[in-house]
Amino acid sequence: xxxxxxxxxxxxxxxxxxxxxxxxxxxxxxxxxxxxxxxxxxxxxxxxxxxxxxxxxxxxxxxxxxxxxxxxxxxxxxxxxxxxxxxxxxxxxxxxxxxxxxxxxxxxxxxxxxxxxxxxxxxxxxxxxxxxxxxxxxxxxxxxxxxxxxxxxxxxxxxxxxxxxxxxxxxxxxxxxxxxxxxxxxxxxxxxxxxxxxxxxxxxxxxxxxxxxxxxxxxxxxxxxxxxxxxxxxxxxxxxxxxxxxxxxxxxxxxxxxxxxxxxxxxxxxxxxxxxxxxxxxxxxxxxxxxxxxxxxxxxxxxxxxxxxxxxxxxxxxxxxxxxxxxxxxxxxxxxxxxxxxxxxxxxxxxxxxxxxxxxxxxxxxxxxxxxxxxxxxxxxxxxxxxxxxxxxxxxxxxxxxxxxxxxxxxxxxxxxxxxxxxxxxxxxxxxxxxxxxx
Length: 439
Ligand code: DOR
Description:
- By secondary structure, the protein is α/β, with parallel strands linked by helices.
- The protein folds into two domains: about 1-50 and about 370-390 and about 400-425, Urease, subunit C, domain 1 (Roll), CATH 2.30.40; about 55-360, Metal-dependent hydrolases (TIM Barrel, Alpha-Beta Barrel).
- Helix content is about 25%, strand content about 25%.
- The chain is built from 14 helices and 19 strands.
- The strands form three sheets. An eight-stranded parallel β-sheet has the order 8-9-10-11-12-13-14-15.
- Helix 4 (about 160-170) crosses helix 7.
- The longest helix is centred in the middle third of the chain and has 18 residues, at about 205-225.
- The relative contact order is 0.17.
- The structure holds (4S)-2,6-dioxohexahydropyrimidine-4-carboxylic acid.
- (4S)-2,6-dioxohexahydropyrimidine-4-carboxylic acid binds near residues 61, 275 and 320.
């Protein structure tokens, strides 16, 4: 007997997108094929729906500990589950920053019995923890090391080449990096100091700021033979350089950099402010070209909640970041419906991609023995994204009022239905994501 059968759906299998059933037993995928409904205790009729491997959002900021007025692990993962996401990797710029084994243990303890999806945490790189990184990156529940080359929310920063080289030489797993050049950010801050229109954000943190950091990083990483993952790439220029580093570098794009352009500053003000910035259509087009050329390895949301009160501060005192974990699936499915990418490529970018980049153990594909994580979507559902729908404590989205086609209908985490037709179900039973390099 199986625990559950997903019956009658169209399923993104390794053999292609085909009509087939999937059976689940003990939280794992137990069989794929035409499966007799009498063989299960529970049958979910998914006729007319697409059954995709669980979407993994490999870049979210959930603010706990220390900034829970913006978000916490429960609200952040509730948004993830409502948006069809089955696992998240959370960033270290909390308060305190996650830089010691004690900080990491604290985050894992806080996650217990409170998270709706599976979860892993990044450890932040800082001058003071360089020696400990090889040990820290192997702790249970750790997705890897994160470097901020330019300052953003929080105090984490690895600004100079010497420290960057030390961090990259310290450890083995792939390192995730925010590439903006701190020296150039400091030099150019004069452009916005004392007040400026928020549209100046993309002038202050210009394309050259991103290109310089990415170039410095790639050279040093190549020299010390360390694998890196370039987070939220935003420029045409970086997309020209990155294909030359396919051996050591993987690439992330965010839904917002693929969807919004600099027109958003006038339309939604500081809601559009994030780092690296939303840029001109020239760059947006280049990101799509790179995505379709296979240069992009995954989509991460960079979910970075701040309250609307905080966002109301006059620029540049307004904080950078926007929500995104709940809207990643609908926004990207809307792009699928508009013909910008195939459903197969969506699956590659949101499930297989993160697993390949970070060596996730037994997730990211619909295959016997893998975790029974599923994002079940209705490709034809037309909905409007609204602030009201957003479960994040900060309660807003840059896409408020946007009509989309394609919507997550159910989220299944290791065989447990945690979201069905817009409602959270049962208890938060998320657990630590496992990685092949530290089983
Ligand atoms: O806009 C951003 N917000 N970019 C980052 O790198 C950090 C994030 C945050 O944590 O607010």
